[in-house]
Write a structure and sequence with these properties.
Elements lengths: L1 E2 L3 E5 L2 E4 L7 E2 L10 E4 L2 E4 L4 E2 L1 E6 L13 E6 L13 H4 L9 E2 L2 H10 L4 E4 L8 H10 L1
């Protein structure tokens, strides 16, 4: 758990999360719509930093990209939580889970970048759920990649 980015205090220990367009107003002890950003005593924390629900090597052609490093592999990672609640989500069990999901693996940005390089991947795909909800981990990993 670490303090989240993109939020502001509202008084009375309430906060407004500014990470996604939902702009959740979160009471003390409660979570935003994504279920992985929590207000603790008037400060917003991310609960899924470095928590991987899924990891895979995927041909880049599997991704919704056109002519992006053709023939290469993407190192795909995802976490729990999502600010969208699509009824037909193919990853519902992952995207609608929280940090207590039993199959989570701990990871660091340095560890992910090391794996990416070890496997010769040209890219990292933050996938399986909406990547915005673990922005801090995505940012830290991208800075190293």
């Amino acid at each position: 758990m670490r303090e989240a980015m993109y939020w502001k205090p509202l008084g009375n220990n309430r906060v407004r999360c500014l990470l996604c367009p939902l702009n959740c107003i979160i009471e003390d002890g409660k979570r935003g719509s994504c279920r992985v950003r929590k207000n603790i005593c008037g400060r917003l924390y991310t609960l899924n930093y470095g928590k991987l629900s899924s990891m895979a090597l995927d041909p880049i052609e599997k991704k919704p990209l056109f002519h992006f490093f053709p023939g290469s592999y993407a190192f795909s990672i995802g976490t729990v939580g999502c600010n969208m609640h699509c009824k037909h989500c193919q990853n519902w069990e992952i995207s609608q889970a929280d940090e207590k999901f039993p199959y989570l693996q701990d990871a660091t940005p340095e560890g992910i970048v090391s794996l990416v390089k070890h496997h010769g991947c040209e890219s990292i795909a933050y996938t399986y759920n909406e990547p915005t909800i673990w922005y801090e981990f995505v940012l830290d990993t991208a800075k190293l990649a």
